[in-house]
Amino acid sequence: MTTPTASLPLAPGVWTLDPLHCTVEFTARHMAISKVRGRFHTFDATVVVADSLETSSLSANVDMSSVDTNNADRDAHLRNSDFFHVDLHPEMTFQSTGIAETAPNTYAVTGDLTINGVTRTEQLAVVFHGTETFPGDGSFHAGFEATGTISRADYGVDFNVPLGAGGFVISDTIGIELDIQLLAPQAEAVS
Description:
Layout lengths: L12 E5 L5 E8 L3 E7 L2 E7 L7 E7 L3 E2 L3 H8 L11 E13 L2 E10 L2 E16 L6 E12 L18 E14 L8
Antiparallel strand pairs: 1-4, 1-11, 2-3, 2-11, 3-6, 4-5, 5-7, 7-8, 8-9, 9-10, 10-11
C-alpha cells in the first residue's frame, strides 16, 4: 500500500496573482534600535498547482525600481549601485525548487532567489489562510502569508556606515513579509 502524496488544497492549474490584494514588504534594523519598513509596488507571481507538492511550483518577480520606504532620498539610494543597482539588475526573482507541508495549512517553500545578479537558495514559511469567492465579480481567491529572512551581504548588498559604539547603521538581516491573494485558473472556454 502506498502513502498518498501531499498536495496543495487548491484546484490544479495556474493560479495568478491578484495584485490589488497583495503586499511585498521587507524590514531592516536601523542603528540596531528600530525597524525600517519598505515595500515594492510592482511584482507578479504564478503558482502552478499540480497533483502533488513535488510537482507544484511557484515563480515570482519584483521590479526593484518600485521600492518604497516612505522616504524619496532613501529610495533613490536603494536604487543605486550601493544597494540594488537597478540599472544592471532591474528585477528580483524567485523560482521554487521544493514545497513541503510542515503542519496543516503550513508549508516550507524552498527556491532560488536572485537579487543583484546573485542567486542563492532561500526558504519561506508559508501559511495558507483559505479560499473565498469575491462577491463583486464571482472570482475565486486563495490567501497566503509568507515570511523569511535573508542576509543582504549574501547578495552583494553590503553598503553600510559604522556606528561610534560598534555595529552598523543597517542590519545585514532583512525580514521578508508577503501577503498574497491568488486567483483561481480561469475555466477553459467551451465552443
